[in-house]
């Protein structure tokens, strides 16, 4: 590995590292590339020692939200000691080695990923290189209450639903809020049950928001009824409302 020398030249250094081969298997079999791409793998402790600011982002790395890193979980029964602990694959440090170096490395013990983990890792590498930079970040999608948070009150009566078991046993008070996108011109309406605001519908008009809420209530009622039958769970209040 060449490194800058203070005398104006370069000195050649050599180092060893654990790596994952990133070159496609078909290119390896047919030797279609002049160099083999490899990605360094570090123990979690060593990697964090150099960049401790990632300590609080480890679960984000696990979920694939940090494009330049990939987490390999510990394998306590691994035949190679370094694989017994959690490791980080530094995708942003990918570089090429010669075929001779690869052949030399293959003489020793090595491990490989199995499907579907190998495809999952390949997806992480592709995601890193497929990123598209924008001159400006897209504005965040955030909503704020319009009209100073005022709400419109409506009552859904049993007659607002289809007859039969799909109709509620009692009137349902509903609050409708007008929402505006914080960084755009979009306007939406949110219709939520007064009893439990986590049951809500959304639409471009108050009427559409109420229709959305009604559809949600009926779908949730059917879902809960199936769970009660199949899993024996405790009865939800929505099932008493829609007997």
Structural account:
A hairpin with a 6-residue loop joins β11 (187-193) and β12. The strands form three sheets. Strands 3, 4, 5, 6 and 7 form a five-stranded antiparallel β-sheet that branches. Strands 8, 9, 10, 11 and 12 form a five-stranded antiparallel β-sheet that branches. The termini are far apart. The relative contact order is 0.08. The protein has 243 residues and is an alpha+beta fold. The protein has seven helices and twelve strands. The chain is 28% helix and 24% strand.
Write the layout of secondary structure elements.
Layout: E1 2-4, E2 10-12, E3 18-21, H1 25-30, E4 36-43, H2 44-50, H3 58-62, E5 69-72, E6 87-90, E7 95-97, H4 99-105, H5 117-129, E8 143-145, E9 151-156, E10 172-181, E11 187-193, E12 200-203, H6 206-231, H7 237-241
